Amino acid sequence: MSRTRILVAGSINMDDLLYIPHQPQEDGAVSVSHTEQLPGGHGSNCASALAALGVQVGMVGAVGDDSNGRILLEDLASRGIDISCVDKIADEPTGRVIIPSCGNEHHMYVIRGANDKFDPNIKRAIASFRPDALVIFDPSWATFEKLRDIKKVNDIQIPVYWCPGGINAGDPSFQFMLDVSDVAIVNLVERDALFDPASHQAFLKNGRELITTLGKNGARFERGDIDKIVSVSETRVSDTVGAGDAFIAGYVLARLRDLSPENRLQFANAAGAVAVGSSGARARSNALAELAKSLPPFEPAMFVNKPILANQENYL
Prior knowledge:
- The protein has eleven helices and 14 strands.
- By secondary structure, the protein is of the alpha/beta class.
């Protein structure tokens, strides 16, 4: 798996987790049992899970020039993630997410900070890292604009995975990403916000894949006339934060390995199950590494949708 290269563009945050025994009533209050501050951000969570699965990962994003930013960059580098395309933004705070967590439920209050303020050269990032896939989460608006521009002239020759999250899925300004993406990965709430019957049919008619996570009920695969749900085994849940990001990492790798739709979802479900078994947004690296070994033996040609090319011009 060390031959696979995946570039992830998205948020890099510090998570403030507040563990509470129950949700308060309206205008009510509840005592916090305990707190944790841990690395997070959808983009960097997925990048970390991919690195734990044994692939080479590059990160496109931004942090502030502050202590949280330094901690997050050190964390990514310690996981073997290429951070050469992560910017430090002066006079902007590193992104933060406040997450009250109660059993299997959690809510996120997002302070975007530096995540919204950087303007990356995404084309150069692709050329320098030469990835086999590009995974997009919630980067700056400037990132989305550049993706749209280079896609218009067919300058992206690698599969693009879009994971919109609740905020972007509900914003009609991001509808153009359905044309940029080869695969969209959403939960039920994001699916309802992103698609009406016409756009759903058009997306699938063009041969793209729509993956819908269903929580404890597994996940759904749709492409053309294929519509398949794969359930998930019962799992001990410690913390659901970051489970979706680990699921996405598993799906991207399994698709690059050219596994069947059913096997892709089985592997992605297993990666998500690893994540819910530990606290915080980062899945357990040792467990994911063991999970990666469960993939079947492969021939190099199965690894990616096209050969790995030494000449970077062939990537753009």
